[in-house]
UniProtKB/TrEMBL annotation:
<dbReference type="Pfam" id="PF01048">
    <property type="entry name" value="PNP_UDP_1"/>
</dbReference>
<dbReference type="GO" id="GO:0004850">
    <property type="term" value="F:uridine phosphorylase activity"/>
</dbReference>
<keyword id="KW-0808">Transferase</keyword>
<feature type="domain" description="Nucleoside phosphorylase">
    <location>
        <begin position="20"/>
        <end position="218"/>
    </location>
</feature>
<dbReference type="GO" id="GO:0006218">
    <property type="term" value="P:uridine catabolic process"/>
</dbReference>
<dbReference type="InterPro" id="IPR004402">
    <property type="entry name" value="DeoD-type"/>
</dbReference>
<keyword id="KW-0328">Glycosyltransferase</keyword>
<dbReference type="InterPro" id="IPR000845">
    <property type="entry name" value="Nucleoside_phosphorylase_d"/>
</dbReference>
<protein>
    <recommendedName>
        <fullName>Uridine phosphorylase</fullName>
        <ecNumber>2.4.2.3</ecNumber>
    </recommendedName>
</protein>
<dbReference type="GO" id="GO:0005829">
    <property type="term" value="C:cytosol"/>
</dbReference>
<dbReference type="InterPro" id="IPR035994">
    <property type="entry name" value="Nucleoside_phosphorylase_sf"/>
</dbReference>
<dbReference type="GO" id="GO:0004731">
    <property type="term" value="F:purine-nucleoside phosphorylase activity"/>
</dbReference>
């Protein structure tokens, strides 16, 4: 609904945001992606320092906008993008904590489904529990890209935590259910995409290993995710 734009959270005018949006949590990762990968990036919103840039990649218009951290923040920005800016697809480009022992730092996980301990699903007042899942076309496109580029990619379930600091027991229970990784936004993103009839996928680079304490530095989190970013851009 064009009339709803700009919003109190997004200064972009209708038409200034592309149909596909890459969405990292971190605003500085959004800036990095725009400046490194987009041609002619234009800053179209910086309300609350949640940067949104629009430019082109290989001739196609693409936007990159931060979601901030957590379901509440993701829910606001993705809702406005889908419903007010008529965005078709949001591709989260996030970091995640690796839970499955076979994962290594910087592996890319494609979040097929996203469980959560947050209450966002209650918002939809459904007569049961929703299974937040990714768009199949975006998942298969990511897998095709990985195969073509010799990247090792893992496709499977993640958990979107409401918080960040959890007990070993919490981690073990999700890991025992086959969950690969923990992050904070994919469940809310998937629910909003399902409700809006739009497309979403969360690509996550493993930035920490929950089982041995290995971790990327903040600088590495901001800048060393290029393989995942190129994968996401290939889906635009
Ligand atoms: O690196 P981003 O995309 O922000 O993702 C992860 O990092 C943040 C926590 O440090 C949460 O937003 C979590 O989902
Ligand atoms: O939510 C997150 C993201 C990265 N690493 C974690 O441990 N948790």
């Amino acid at each position: 609904m064009k009339e709803q734009t700009p919003t109190i959270h997004n200064a972009a005018k209708y038409g200034e945001i592309a149909k596909t949006v890459l969405m990292p949590g971190d605003p500085l990762r959004a800036k990095y992606i725009a400046e490194k990968f987009l041609e002619n990036p234009r800053l179209v919103s910086d309300i609350r320092n949640i940067y949104c840039y629009t430019g082109t990649y290989q001739g196609k218009e693409v936007s990159v906008m931060a979601s901030g951290m957590g379901a509440g923040s993701m829910s606001i920005y993705s809702y406005e993008l889908f419903h007010f800016y008529d965005v078709d697809a949001i591709i989260r480009v996030g970091s995640a904590g690796g839970m499955h022992p076979s994962l290594k730092l910087r592996d890319v996980v494609v979040a097929l489904a996203s469980s959560t301990d947050n209450g966002y699903a209650r918002h939809f007042n459904l007569p049961g529990d929703i299974a937040p899942c990714a768009d199949y076309g975006l998942v298969s496109g990511a897998v095709d890209y990985a195969k073509a580029h010799g990247m090792s990619v893992r496709v499977g379930p993640v958990v979107s935590g409401e918080g960040f600091y959890y007990s070993d027991e919490w981690m073990k229970k999700w890991t025992d259910m086959g969950v690969l990784a923990v992050e904070m936004e994919s469940a809310a993103l998937y629910m909003n995409a399902m409700e809006a009839g739009k497309r979403a996928v969360a690509l996550c680079t493993i930035s920490d290993l929950m089982f041995n304490g290995a971790a990327c530095t903040p600088q590495e989190r901001q800048e060393s995710f290029d393989d995942m970013i190129l994968m996401a851009l290939s889906l635009a």
